[in-house]
Automatic annotation (TrEMBL):
Pfam families, alphabetized: MRM3-like_sub_bind (PF22435), SpoU_methylase (PF00588)
Domain RNA 2-O ribose methyltransferase substrate binding residues, every copy: 43-119
InterPro entries: Alpha/beta_knot_MTases, MRM3-like_sub_bind, Ribosomal_eL30-like_sf, rRNA_Methyltransferase, SpoU_MeTrfase, SpoU_subst-bd, tRNA_m1G_MTases_N
Record has Transferase as a keyword: yes
Protein name per its UniProtKB record: RNA methyltransferase
Cross-referenced CDD domains: SpoU-like_rRNA-MTase
Organism: Nitratireductor aestuarii
The entry's keywords: Methyltransferase, Transferase
GO-annotated biological processes: methylation; RNA processing
Family statement: Belongs to the class IV-like SAM-binding methyltransferase superfamily. RNA methyltransferase TrmH family.
Length: 283
């Protein structure tokens, strides 16, 4: 168990109204990456996100709710699930919840969860599977939007290569709208990624402004697909571009140099799905 968790015996319910309470200070500190890493934890705000996370089996450390949530059946059920899972329930004042979530009008509920990455070697790609690898993605909003899109198209996971923005920052978690809890996350430095890629038995498609292939002309149905997207400023470096079976380009008209990374990822994912394994969700 981590330092924060040890401050209370698991399963206890505690009322907290003071901003100087050490637990409040520790949970607020999760705004900093350094502290998130040390605690292996992160904050998710809002009842929907907390319920999505519990439903998907993520480990909850703290369930935090405002006094206004008292008597709300869904809030009480989530609190009971937290206790059953060994977590701690904090009933807090609005002032404390505002401080924790850094918002003037916070949602009624927040949760502190354990971070979760999976090892690359766990990936067993099958026909129809799509994975997305992001090289040094920097923008938290882009990463959150991409994770949400990966979820929407039913792709199997995202691989973060090198020094990426933290998927567990408040901004990224917000932007995923709950998809963070549904999309497996993998991370690797470039060397480990390239060594794993050698055994990826499918089509590896990189996107590049200098790509010679129109993205609509590729047959994505030959097996699993690994889609590689470049960094916002620099694009894919040669070392990663050379590891791709194909380098594709999305044609553009007008003056823009390139598409936004998250938009380009969305365009690619829907094309891969359209041409190979159409999404059958209801319209
Ligand atoms: N200045 C960067 C460069 O030269 O590559 C621009 C990077 S762009 C903002 C971020 C990523 O989105 C690219 O690395 C690529 O993966 C993808 N991308 C954006 N527009 C694209 C396009 N028209 N065709 C293919 N990929 C594109």
């Amino acid at each position: 168990m981590t330092e924060i968790h040890n401050k209370l015996a698991p399963g206890r319910v505690k009322e907290v109204t003071s901003l100087s309470n050490p637990l409040v200070k520790d949970i607020k500190a999760l705004a900093l990456k350094k502290f998130r890493e040390r605690e292996n934890a992160f904050l998710a705000e809002g009842l929907k996100l907390v319920l999505d996370a519990l439903e998907a089996g993520w480990t909850i450390k703290f369930f935090i709710f405002a006094k206004s949530g008292r008597g709300n059946a869904v809030v009480e059920k989530a609190a009971a699930r937290t206790v059953a899972a060994g977590g701690t329930v904090l009933e807090v004042s609005e002032k404390v919840l505002s401080a924790i979530t850094r918002k003037d009008n916070p949602q009624m509920v927040a949760g502190v969860f354990e971070q979760r990455y999976r090892p690359l070697k766990e990936i067993r790609p099958a026909a129809g599977d799509v994975y997305v690898a992001l090289d040094r993605v920097r923008d938290p909003g882009n990463l959150g939007t991409i994770i949400r899109t990966i979820d929407a198209v039913g792709a199997k996971g995202v691989i973060l290569i090198g020094d990426c923005t933290d998927p567990f920052s408040l901004e990224t978690v917000r932007a995923t709208m709950g998809s963070l809890f549904a999309v497996p996350l993998y991370r690797a430095d470039e060397e480990a990624f390239l060594s794993w890629r050698k055994n990826f038995g499918g089509l590896v498609v990189g996107t590049h402004l200098k790509g010679s292939v129109d993205y609509r002309t590729v047959d994505y149905s030959t097996g699993p697909v690994l889609l590689m997207m470049g960094n916002e400023q620099k694009g894919l470096p040669d070392s990663l571009a050379e590891a791709c079976d194909k380098l594709v380009r999305i044609p553009q008209a007008g003056q823009a140099d390139s598409l936004n990374l998250a938009v380009a990822t969305g365009v690619m994912l829907y094309e891969i799905r359209r041409s190979a394994f159409p999404i059958t969700g209801e319209i």
